[in-house]
Structure formats: C-alpha cells, structure tokens
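Q: Could you write out the predicted structure for this multi-component system? I'm mainly interested in how the pieces pack against one another.
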Amino acid sequence: MTPEQAVVAVETVSAVIDGVEVTVPKGTLIIRAAEQLGIAIPRFCDHPLLAPAGACRQCLVDVEINGRAFPKPQASCTMPVENGMVVKTQLTSPVAAKAQEGIMEFLLINHPLDCPVCDKGGECPLQNQAMSTGRTESRFEGEKRTFEKPINISSQVLLDRERCVLCARCTRFSNEIAGDPFITLNERGALQQVGIYEKDPFESYYSGNTVQICPVGALTGASYRFRARPFDLVSVNSACEHCASGCDLRTDIRRGKTLRRLAGDDPAVNEEWNCDKGRWAFKYISSRERLKNPLVRGADGELHEASWPEAIAAAAAGLAGKRVGVLAGGRLTHEDAYGYSKFARVALGTNDIDFRARPHTDEERDFLASVVTDLKTTYADIDKADHVVLVGFEPEEESPIVFLRIYRHVRKRALSVISDAPLASRGSKKLGAKLVSSVADVSGLTAQSVILVGERAAEVEGTLSAAYALAQSTGAKLAWIPRRAGERGAIAAGAIGNLLPGNRPVGDSSARVDVQSAWGVSSLPENVGRSTSQILAALNDESLDAVLIGGVDPMDISADALNQLLNTFVVSLEISNSSVTAIADVVLPVAAVAEKSGSYLDWRGSARHFDKAMEDVDLRSDVRILSMVADALGKPINLPTVTATRAEIESLGNWDGAKSTFTPRALAAAPSDEFTLVSWRFLLDLGALQQGEANLAGTAKQARAHISSATAAKLGVTEADHLKISSDHGSIELPVSIREIADNLVWVPRNSEGSQVIPSLGFTRGAVKVAKR
Amino acid sequence: MSTLSPVLSAHWDEPDSFTIAAYKRHGGYGALAKALKSTPDEVIALIKDSGLRGRGGAGFPTGNKWSFIPQGDNKAHYLVVNADESEPGTCKDMPLLLANPHSLIEGIIIGSYAIRANHSFIYLRGEVVHVYRRVQKAIEDAYAAGFLGKNILGSGFDLELTLHAGAGAYICGEETALLDSLEGFRGQPRLRPPFPAIAGLYAMPTVVNNVESIASVPSIIEHGVEWFQAMGTEKSKGYTLYSLSGHVANPGQFEAPLGITLRQILELAGGIRSGHQLKFWTPGGSSTPMFTAEHLDVPLDYEGVSAAGSMLGTKALQIFDETTCVVRATLRWVEFYKHESCGKCTPCREGTWWLVQIMKDLEAGKGTEADLEKLLDLCDNIAGRSFCALADGAVSPIISSLKYFRAEYIQHLTEGGCPFDPVASTLFETAGA
Amino acid sequence: MSFTHEELAVMDSIIARYPKKRSAVMPLLHYVQSLDGYVTERGIETIAEKLDLSTAEVTAVSSFYTQYKSEPVGEYHVGICTNTLCAIMGGDAIYESVCQNLGIKKDQTTADGKISLERIECNAACDYAPVVMVNWEFYDNQTPASVNELLDGVRSGNPPAPTRGPSKLRTWKENSAVLAGLSDGLAEEGLQAGEASLLGLNIAKSQGSK
C-alpha cells in the first residue's frame, strides 16, 4: 500500500453471512462479501465491473436487517451489505436454496441440450451451476423456444440465441464499458433476444470481451469456434504485443499452437478487458511467411538458407570494421531492446541507434530523454483527473485500454476531455472531447489534470514543447503514450542515440562510466548518435556502410526508406519475410512474442513479464542472436539468455543523476496550404501483426476521406463521390465523408485498405491537392 | 342504502364536460388559485392530512410521496402522471380523461407547485387516440388560459406540461419502467434504490402518481380535508372510482366512498345479468387474487380487501357468472402476463412461458392432478422471486382460482376437456344476437 | 429516400418538447409510422442520427413496444380484445368471425393492404366489452355482426364512426400522427362519455332526486 492509499480511511460495515461475521468496505454487495468468506452464490448477470442488474435472479438469498427479515429472498448482486445484516445463502436457508433451484430450472427450460457441441462446455457457468444448483431431472414437458442458430453479428462474433440466458452482460458491457451500443436486447418477454441493427454489425473494438464474459455459449468467436475443448488447453500468462496499454493476457495453447487469447485480470491496467486486436491478432505467429532458418545472400545475389554458424559468421563478417547504424524498431521487448543498445555500443562502437520506425524529430528525442524518462503517470491518475488532455493522441485507435479508462470516468462523472485532434473521431465523440486547434489553446488545467501525449505529437514541431510547458505551468501530470508496445522499453534500454540503458544521458561522463563498468568496457562513444532518418540518409550518402535492422517496416518511416537500404550491407532480424528481408544480406529469424520470454514496458514505464508460451519452438529472442553475432565479432555483449539480460538490466538500475535539459521548440505555424493532409492509424488496419486475421479485418473501419461540408461544396462532392488526394509522390482515391473538420484539412487513415499514406503520398502530414475523382 | 359520491364524474353528463369552459363553469381552476396562495409545503401538508392514497393500485399515501422530494437541492424536479392504464379490467382513467381532462391538469399544476417541479409529464397509453386528443387539447387550453407556462396566475410559478404517448407495453405502468420508457429506453423496471423521489426521471427527484390520484387533488384543495375525510373508512379516506364490468346487468363507472361493497354496487347497478349467478370476480384487476360470492360484503377499501386475501388494486370489479370457465379465464390472464413480461428477469420471462403451456394443457384436459401441484410449485418459484410485481400478478389468478375452484380444474382433467360452452358466456348469447 | 426538410423540421419540434432528446424516441417512432405506416429503415436511421443513438438502440426500443410495427399494417388496423373479460363476453367469437370474413389471421394484412388484424390486450374499456379498436379508436359493445358491418364499411370507404371518438374514422397513418403529438383538431368531436361511464352518476342523481 502506498502512503497515499493508506491515509484514505475506508468506512466498513459488518454482517453475518451463513453464521460467519464479515467486515467489508461500505457499499460492498452481499454476493462479493460472501465471496470473501468462500461462499459462492450462483450468478449469471452479475459481473464485478458492470453496474448491478439484478436480472437473472439466480443469486437470491434470505436477508434480515436488525432482526427484520425481508419477506422475499433478495438478489445478493444488487444489495449492499449493511451493519446488522444477517444473510442466509443457499447453504443455510432452504428458502434461498429453493429459490435458486427454481431460477435454475427456469433458465434451463429453454436452453438447448447441445453442451456436447458447445464451445463453452467445460468452462460454462451455466453448466457448472446447473450441476451445483439445478435439479437432476427437468420437469419441463413443453415446447422449447427456438431461433435460427447461430447468426453472425459481426465477422468475428456469432450469436446463438437459443443458448442465451439474457443476462445482458454483453449488452451492458458494450454500452457501459465500451460505449458501443451496437448490440442490444430486442423484442420483449420470452421473445427478448440480443441483436444488432442488421445494417450495422457489432463492429466494436472491444467486442471480444462479450464472448469472454458470456456465461453460456451464446456468443462465440469465429476463429475459436469448434477448435478445442477448454480442458485440452494449456493457459499461459502473457503480455500483449500490440500496443503500449500494457494489458495482461492469457494465451491458450493446444499442441504447440495458440488457439485463443483472453484478457487477463490486472485491476491497475486493463481490469478484465482487452481490445479485439489484442485478443484476435495472433495468426502472424503461424503465418506461412514465418522465417524458420537463417538466410544468407550468396554470390549469385540470391538469398539461400544457411546454418546458424554460417549466418552468424556472415553477419559478423559484413559488419566487422564497418560504420553501422542500428534500426531497432518499436516492437521489441525490453530485454531485446537492451540487446540492440548494448550491441550498438559494445560490438559496433556507435550511438547510431534508434527504435523509432515512424515519423520522428530531434525535438522528440530530446523530449524522450529529458522528460519521458522521468514520467510517473499511471491509470490511477486518470481515475483522479479533473481534465484529460489528448495531444496528438487518439486513445481508442492508439491505446484502446487507455481509452476505456478515460471513458469510464466520462460516463461516471462527466470527466472533461480536451483534444488537439483536427477532427472529432468516433472515440472523441464518445469522450465528449472538446477540440482545440493546438495544445497552446488549452486552459483551465490544475495539478489534478492529466496530459496524454501520443507519438504523433512529434509530427507538429513545438507540440511536445508546448505540452511540456503546459504541464510545468499547471502542475498537471504528463504521460507519453506511444502506439507500439516496445517503445517505452526501448527508451529504458537506451535503443536511441542520446540515451544509454537506465535512462543515462549519452553525453554525461559519469553516466557512461556507470555503464562502462557494468559492461566491462573501457570506453563508450560520447557523441549523441544519429536518428532513424539520419541513419537512412547516412546509408544513402555512404557515411554509414551497413545497417542492423530489427522488426521494422521501412514504409512506416518514409517512402524512400527502403530505397536507402538498397546499396548497403543489411542484417535483418525478423520473424517473417518482409520488404527488408527481401533486400537483406543476412536474415536471422527470431522468436515471436509467444515463442520467447521477456517483458514489455507499457506507457507508464511498468514492466509486464511473460514466459515462453509455446514450448516446442526453438527460435530465439533477438538478444540471444545479437549476443552470438557479437561473439563472432570478437566484441562480446554477454547476453546469452533473456534471464541474464534481465538480471543485467536490474543490476545496472536506473540513473539518478541529472537528465539533459530539454530545449523547447517554438510551435509551428498552422498550415497555410490550400489543403493539408492529416492522418492517424486505425486500431485495425494493414499492420503487420494483424495479417491472416480475416475475421478481425472484417470489423475494421473502412477508409474514407474526411472533409468539411464547406470543402465538399467547394469541390462539388457528396458522400456518394470519391476524392483524389495527391502529392508530388503519388495519390490515393477514397470515398468522401463529410465531417466537422477545418476547411483546409483532409483526414484519411494512415495504413488502411486503399489508404496507405506513406507509400502513396510520401508523408503522413503535409500539403496535398484534393479534387473530385 | 349506500350513497354514491360523484366528484370527478359529477358533470360527465354534460356534452361539453371535457372543455375548459365547462370545467371552469363548475369552479374549475379555483383550487389552483387557492393552492398558489399557500406555500408548497402547506399544499403537501394538506394532501398528507387528507389521507389521499394512490389510486393506481398500491395505495401509497400521495402526500407522503410528495414529501419525499428533497427540497432546496437545486435540482430539477418532475411530476410524472401514470396514465398507462392497462391492467386487465381497469377502465377508470380513460373515461375520466375523455370526459374531464382538466381535473387532471389542475391537479398536476397543484402537485408540481407542491413538489417544486417546473416540467411535468403525462405518460398516456398509446392505444387510445381520442383520449390523447382530449388531453392534448386540454393542455393547449390550459396554456392559453395562463394555467400553464410562465408565471402562472401571477404567482411566479412556471410549469411546462408534456403529453407523451406510450406504445403498447403494460409494464410501463410500473413506475420505474415508465420512467425508462419516458427517457426513451425499453420500458424495463429499474433497480430500487434509488427510488424515483431521489433519482427518477433523468436521475432527478421525481413523483409518479396515478391519474385518479392527481385528479382528486383539486377537489381536496377546494372542499378541504374534512370534506374528504368524511368519506371512506378509517385508513382509506375519500371517494374513488369503481369500474364494474363483465356479467352484470349494467356495467359502468361508480364513484363512491372507499369501503363500499360489491353487494352494494351490484344492488345499485341492477345485479348480475339476468338469470345468472356470480361465480368469481376481481376486486382490482387481474393481478389481484380473485374473489367469489363469499366476498360480496368485503369492504372495498385498502385494508378490507387485503384482510380478505386480495388487493384493492385499481378497483376494477370484473364480474364473471357461472357460465364462465375459470380455467379459461385464468389461462387468458396468464397469456396476457406472458405477452407483457418485459423479459428482464428469469422467473417472469421463463416462468410465464411455462405457465401458459401448462395452463393450456389443463384447459384442454391434458395432465394429472400432479400437474396442479407442479403448477403451484412453479408459482411459488415465481412469486416474490422476480424483479418487479408483474410476475406476482401472473401467478395470482392461478393461485386464487386453484384455491376456490380446484374441482373445476380436476373436472377438466377427468372429462378430458373444458366442460363449459363458451357461447353461453358471451354477451350476444344472452342478447339473442 | 430520405425525409423532406419539412418532415425533418417536425422531428426537431418533437425533440424540442423534452429536456433530454432521447425522450423523443417514442413520439418520433409514432411519427415515422404516420409517414411510412410502420417503422422503416429510414425511420430508424434518421431517429438514430437525430438523437445520437446507435441504430441498434432505436431498434431495441421500437421492437419492445407492441404498437410499433416492423412490417406494414393496413390502412385500417383492427384490434380485437381477447383478454379474459372481452374474450369471454364475445371477443373470441368476434375474432373467429373476423378471421373468416377477412381471410387473414392475427398480425396479417389483407392482400389489398386495407385491413390488418391484431389480437389486442385489455384496452381500458371493460365496461364496454367486447371491445374492438380500429386505428386505436373505440368501438364499444361489439358483436360478430357489428364488427362485420364495420369491416364492410371500411372496405366500402365508409366506416361507421367510432363509439367514443371523432365523427369520422381516421387512417392508421393519420392517427399515428396524433400519437406523435401532431394535433388533428378533432378533440372536441364525439361523445364526452358513453353510457356506461355515466351509470354511477345517473344512479347518484336519481338517488339524490328521491
């Protein structure tokens, strides 16, 4: 318990449940107080994270308060414990036991007997509680209610209305937690059923949670349907690789194959939820494009499979004595990032390393080193915030669990949200966000406020500086929330040109001494290294000779990035064939997240460790392979395992000396071109880790070009038309969507079907020409 | 000889009774002027003192309900009138609104003033278009006369009144379901607490009153507490509308002091239809356990009916003679509750589904006496186990009919079908049509 | 096809009656029925957009209430009360006879789209049993013969006036507009009270005169 928590006195109440006294915080529901005593009251509609419903009536118990008994059994999921309360559950009250048995009988009269073919069988609350609470034989001799079964309510969720017990967990989740009331209870009485509006399927980013909390087999996921029995699965705790929210996950494996992933339970982070990408994007691991063996480019100019010793030797030979840049990528575990960081400094003798495979600036790099390394903001700060400011950040698209946390408080207490987004996204609308044209226009913040800065804040010069200044002047809490899971860990590992591991400034001699002694080397490069774009430019002008690349898609950086790699020696560490492996000289396959152990640092800087989920895979983590290459170079980094790496990170610890000072930049002027392209990525898009997930992709938002009604009038287009958006580099064509957006802006998604802006237009933000197609 | 006491219905025989002119001709809106001269708290105290109790079924004291509204809380308050009259047998509020809508509107203005509400609503069932017209016109006329809107009669009190049509859902007569419906949701009951007095419409302090309760308010203001208390019984004060229907010589509305008996009403109304005898009746709609001829002298007030094992309910006296099959009557009621179950909770949704199937079998003479035990056991698993009282209403005719007419159920089983001729119980049979 | 500007303006005026706009969903559904005869897709989509609701939320509401129809109903929608009291006093017989007459059953519409049929629950007119509603207007004290006469009138374009209602029977769409709060000016037509409503009063008066 932190000192802060300790001072909050919790008012408690005491009651007797089944003869045992229990003391709980005021407001605790009877059903939860009973849990504390180990008394399980059966339930369906009850869920600790949803508002009480009292709908299924399965949890009826007898209650008296100060000697006065309620005439009827009460739903223990809706009634808070009070002093002087005496509760008798099914264990001690025949009335409660009969009431529960009666409800169970009612629930079963219309439930099909299809447990043998039901996905839920074996982990089904209805099945289990029918055993604990039900009658042995049914007294129902009538006609069961039938529905067409199952129906698709989205490309990834199926609904079997016959199995549904109408507990409304799914509809309540979608409305209360996700703010996506796309599934509702329809019709009435015995015909009541969950449903969608036929033209608008259940395309919520959080739809998978409803499958997980469904207490029967009514909602099932298309990709897991009929694939396994729960008791054949091995469950492993894992961390999500898809973003920096930091979700706890559970991965279920059968015979070496991931069959499904579920949200884990971490009250400080994702509570019991996750997003559909985290749940349903994992087939990339078993993609046909996966690399199993090393490849080395032969004298014939073609890549050939090679043995590990051959490949390691080839990589070392290609890098030895060369001026090498390192592009680590944003998806690395903390340990792997540390491997790249140490490899660059020790094996290559350079600070030319950057994890940022996306638009980036020097302002940002300074900000990361000087400001972000000190940030301590957490989800709990959002819980207490009076205002939340979003700067270059669309939480629902870029960190969906952060979105859920903000949304909870918007719903519960009308939390004020301010965003500098150029367009009111669906997420901003759900948050009721007040839009401002720049962070400089935000006012009214206090020390209770929270400023959440996204990675796109780097794209408008001076924005990060302004956000920092706002936090400084108001005392508001600041956080930086990158999109990718590995970026915060990469900063901590020093996989960037101005930092050594443990947040140590490269330019600080005592910081370098720390690291030198830990690494047993006599010196470390002193100058701040090149950034990603500088490395690419240097490769192009031959001031660098070679490059070591982790999981990077050059098209996430710039349209020219791949070309800039063509005439240089490339060592690629990758999980699957990619545009980089195609041109690499040496390709070293590495383990994907389920195949290795490690940890991710989420946006808070907190680590979530995970163990190797798939035991039979012999692919290795990046750090292990880098260690072998370093050995071959004769400059060992001594990181033979993830465990050893973790230990070294911990023993090195974090820097407690002075950080480099952040030099603020002036805010760039608002764009003055006729049309400026603005963009961000949808959560579900063409991202590399979503490949092969057709069901998931079916729920992705469609790309449209968003323009104002004035612009539409000027261009003579309606929503039935297409726009052509072009730059010097190329063009894209998209259907029109008329929205609230400044007249000189056009918004498109960054990496969706038909709208990949970097390859097509050459940038993510800039002057474009817009015309009716 | 008992006396009737027409108050709300006193002028229904005048062809223009529903107009504001007719209402004012008989002193209408005088009570409003009087009330506005008192403080809101004095109005609440007066209604409390009068002993007026809810006429929609539950009989909760109206003044107490008003006094639960927190004052000085700087929140919007609402008065919502429950005009969703749908309980089978109940037919008092619709004729009242057709003939005398201004009594309701005047009552609403006084009630809103008392609870400090500046916007009130009438939730009218949707299946009565002409009643909607009458109430809407009455509201328009009240606005035009300065009884609604800003600064009513120069008192500084402002009130908006909105008429809202339901759309066919009995459950919306349950006050929290009504509020959800009025807010634009499915009409399903809400968890209580919080009670509407604390968090009702739009989560603001709200009073929900029945049409007749509110329409009774002006008469109490006008004639005083003593006048009102002179009618009725010890704990059931005042006058009320009794609705007589079914196999009687003359069905219709009777306004009488609380505590009158069915025997007295039948005497006034000309008795059971000629040549027939009373078999069973409901004192207050289909949800109230049925009575038989042995209950003819039960005082029809809240306590009297309750002591005899039923509920005063809506005072809907549905009379059935010996030609009526009680199993058929009960089945039809249970079918109604199945149709109207909102679906939210298990025992009501699934229980009524099952009860209908069993009742159908029994009516068709299928089953054994063990099925009667099963039926009662299911009723026991439904009553008091559901989210709201709708399901209690569903089992009430089953339990009460089995109590008084078990032999008739068994007769269905032994004869393998219904022993009654349905034609014999129709109206046109007797009329020779 | 979208609604006209005038129709959309009516919707806005309905929304303006309420402190919170979601409350307008029910009158808007009645209004959509007054234009389209039933709850159409364009109706649901427009209401959702106007009220910032999802289309699913509007569907959830419209499908809950019996009066909102997901399929077209007739120009004259006939509801026969078959709840206990009316059924026993003749409602069942009336229903059977109407089915025969029209050749349709409950929740069906005649081929010409003129008449649809519903078995309705208690319509708060038990002292006038058996009760039949046409477009939610009262036809009191009905018999199979009187209802068949009523249907003949409907088919010939000359339906009898409701017992307690306006002088002329209005169509389903016209009456739906009334339920949306759009006055048709007919409030003062028709009886103030039927015979049964006056029974107690008349007895009381005769008591008083004794």
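A: Regarding packing and overall arrangement: Chain C touches chain B through 83 residues (CB under 8 Å).
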